[in-house]
Amino acid sequence: MKQIYLFRGLTWPFRYFFSILKRKLGKLDLLRVEVFVVLGNSSHLFVKGRVIEAYKQSRPSDKHNTLHNILATLRRYAGSSVPDARVELRIAGLNKQLVTDEEGVFEGLYDLDEKTSESTKTVQFSLLADEGLKPEVPSITKEILRFQKNYPHGIISDIDDTIIVSKATNIQEKFWLSVSKNAYTRRPLPGVSEFYRLLSANAQYPVFYVSSSDWNLFDLIQDFLKYREIPVGPILLKDRHMDLKNIWKSGGGSHEHKVEKISFLMDFYPNLNFVLLGDSGQHDPEIYAEIISKYKHRIEAVYIRQVGTKDPIREEELNKLLPSNKIVWIKNSTEAIEHAKVYLVH
């Protein structure tokens, strides 16, 4: 998606000021609040979402042709985000206001008292209809995802070339796959569904997805997971693509955000150990090395799918960080399943 990232980066000032102008003139269409993540623990609530002009997007189908998928991609990226919009959050008597950033994204982390944290199951979001902002619906309610059981482990997984064939190391191939396919026609890596269901005890344990894809692809990734029967879980994607000097790097820019998001999950669920899943095609080994150095005793295993030519020096550096039986370089899901049955699944 690098070409799309470049386009969005170059056109951002125009889209931002055009959105502000439409708002001042009262020309914005109906607006939609899209909620991406609502996470809770014993003391905090974390939410993330965005406000965009409501657009109609047909449901994906394995019968849609290339042209239909290209048009759907353009429609997804052409949607106008709404900066400086106010969203009210309500949860058990707690009322908070969030303001969207330049890309229409809002985010909040709130302290909760013990009673609210344990008893409250949902949170309500409402767009405040000021300056001509017209919400598509008065409010939406989302379930709070909590993981407070004594799970043996949770899972944190990359997406591109870890669960879905993306050709991330080839710009042209990745771009074509991104625009010409949909959630039903994108291909998973063979055996991924079986492997993830094994690791998560058939989706009983929490699974998180962290990727350098941007939030415009949230619905595609979610639909893909459901359609391919891969355990669904919270999805944390890349927030902005403003740094033009990084856009042409592999994977659409800096991957430091993945370290930040994985660290957030480790800190948000301090009693949970994790299995990390990624591939060698981009920066996953280096990212996971940094995570291991910070949270060594909470990493149960690291699975890295080998993409392209083997790099012995890279493998050796990562192998130094954990015992050899916990760093697993795999060629396919069959090897991963065999290892997991011996070392992780009892």
Automatic annotation (TrEMBL):
List the GO molecular function terms.
Answer: phosphatidate phosphatase activity
Instruction: Domain (Phosphatidate phosphatase APP1 catalytic): give its ranges.
Output: 154-306
Check the record and name the InterPro entries matching this protein: APP1_cat, Mg2+_PAP
Q: Which Pfam families does the annotation name?
A: APP1_cat (PF09949)
Q: Which PANTHER family match?
A: PHOSPHATIDATE PHOSPHATASE APP1 (PTHR28208:SF3)
Protein name per its UniProtKB record: Phosphatidate phosphatase APP1 catalytic domain-containing protein
The organism named in the record is Cyclobacterium amurskyense
